[in-house]
Design brief:
single chain; Rossmann fold; 4-stranded parallel β-sheet; alpha/beta; 126 residues; 4 strands
Length: 126
Amino acid sequence: MGKLIVVVGNSGVGKTSLTEAICTAGDFAAGLETHATRPFQTLFKNNSSYALANQIDYLLARAEQERRIRAEPKAGIQDGGLEMDLFVFTRLFHRKGLLSAEEYGLCERLVNQIRSSQPPPEESCG
């Protein structure tokens, strides 16, 4: 099972650029943010009622990335990661009133369920 390293930090500080550079320089599997391919991203930008679907999609996408990376024989690096998506972005949307307490709780339950079947990252860099 491959190790997972997650690069965390504020939005726009270069997590993706750093992750890409490390993966290019070394032999690492990459798990990058995929805003352009997320089906609910544009819908959410235009209509906040898609906030829950958008967040669940992101959380599942991150879990799928982790599973793929861990199936590799080599270590992998992810920009952001599952916990960052929950504790930064999902929490932010809840604080802004885009997700209800119940919806935030649903996302938290999803992450707890995912984490119970997948180990957490080995290291965090930020």
